[in-house]
């Protein structure tokens, strides 16, 4: 993939091929159009495949061939105006690594984002009301989460490690006093592994959109001190209006940490 300046590529976006916006999401074409309107040079379309859900049939499958055809049509249509990449967001890879490898091998995506949305035996925090969950349980969930996330950073075909602070966004939204620095030991191991394995660190900007402070400041300072220089932004847009949202705030944070370089 070409080099792009930080605010000109949205690496994490969803179309109506993702199960969580299948009914009111937008086509690949519309997402690309929105990216051009926002002044982007490139977009990566990263619809969900939750590996555990494929194996356990929890959600409807991703319709690969129809999706690929629409993405490739958009790629062709916007040539010269916008670089379009056919990516994927693979969740819970480590639950069924053989199946994940098979899917990636068959589909040949341009770019693979690795995510942990739920840990083994636990629900996706997206579905939980953390105002009704004790703090100890949230801490236990995060212990498990960072553990699985670390394993995910070692998967060879993963290009980018997504939203490291994913469960925390739901906990913070519910007003839980979560201090990310509690997991600094685990986070250090994760960042070291990402650097060692050449992964891109994704700064996910959903927080900005939801009006929650980005909890990444300390994490990014640690990443920098470990020699980390591979950061990209992902809006996690599920609708056109969210493409590249929060990028200004995220860029300011990164530029402040990396100033003078
Ligand atoms: Zn995700
Ligand atoms: Zn996503």
- State the total count of DSSP E strands: 7
In what order do the strands lie side by side in the largest sheet? 1-2-3-4-5-6-7
> Roughly what fraction of the amino acids lie in strands?
5-15%
Total discrete domains: 1
Radius of gyration: 17 Å
Give the oligomer, counting copies of the same chain as homo and different chains as hetero.
single chain
Weakly predicted, low-confidence segments: none
Shape: globular
Determine the CATH topology: TIM Barrel
Q: How would you describe this structure to a colleague?
A:
40% of the residues lie in helices and 15% in strands. It is an alpha/beta fold. Helix 4 links the parallel strand 3 (83-91) and strand 4 (111-115). Helix 5 (135-152) packs parallel to helix 7 (184-196). The protein is globular and about 50 Å long. It binds zinc ion (2 copies). One zinc ion is lined by residues 12, 14, 89, 236.
Structure in a nutshell:
The chain has ten helices and seven strands. By secondary structure, the chain is of the alpha/beta class.
Task: Looking at this protein, list some descriptive labels.
TIM Barrel, 7-stranded parallel β-sheet, alpha/beta, single chain, binds zinc ion, globular, 261 residues
Q: Can you lay out the helices and strands and say which pair or pack?
A:
Layout: E1 9-13, H1 28-37, E2 42-50, H2 51-56, H3 64-77, E3 83-91, H4 97-107, E4 111-115, H5 135-152, E5 160-161, H6 166-173, H7 184-196, E6 200-204, H8 206-209, H9 217-225, E7 231-234, H10 247-257
Parallel strand pairs: 1-2, 2-3, 3-4, 4-5, 5-6, 6-7
Helix pairs in contact: 5-7
The structure holds zinc ion (2 copies).
One zinc ion binds at residues 89, 115, 117, 162-163.
């Amino acid at each position: 993939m070409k080099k792009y300046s930080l605010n000109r590529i949205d690496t994490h976006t969803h179309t109506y091929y993702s199960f969580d916006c299948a009914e009111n999401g937008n086509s690949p074409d519309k997402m690309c159009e929105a990216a051009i309107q926002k002044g982007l040079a490139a977009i990566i379309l990263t619809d969900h495949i939750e590996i555990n859900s494929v194996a356990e049939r929890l959600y409807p499958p991703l319709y690969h061939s129809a999706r690929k055809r629409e993405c490739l049509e958009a790629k062709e249509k916007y040539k010269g105006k916008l670089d379009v990449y056919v990516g994927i967001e693979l969740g819970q890879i480590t639950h069924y690594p053989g199946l994940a490898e098979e899917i990636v091998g068959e589909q040949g995506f341009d770019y693979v984002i690795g995510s942990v949305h739920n840990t083994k035996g636990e629900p996706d925090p997206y579905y939980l009301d953390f105002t009704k969950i004790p703090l100890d349980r949230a801490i236990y969930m995060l212990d498990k989460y960072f553990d699985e996330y670390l394993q995910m950073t070692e998967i060879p075909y993963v290009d980018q490690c997504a939203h490291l602070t994913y469960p925390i966004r739901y906990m913070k939204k519910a007003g839980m006093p979560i201090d990310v620095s509690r997991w600094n030991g685990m986070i250090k191991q994760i960042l070291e592994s990402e650097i060692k394995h050449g992964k891109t660190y994704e700064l996910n900007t959903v927080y900005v959109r939801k009006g929650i402070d980005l909890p990444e400041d300390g994490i990014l300072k640690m990443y920098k001190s470990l020699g980390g220089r591979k950061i990209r932004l992902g809006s996690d847009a599920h609708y056109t209006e969210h493409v590249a949202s929060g990028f200004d705030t995220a860029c300011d944070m990164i530029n402040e940490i990396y100033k003078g370089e």
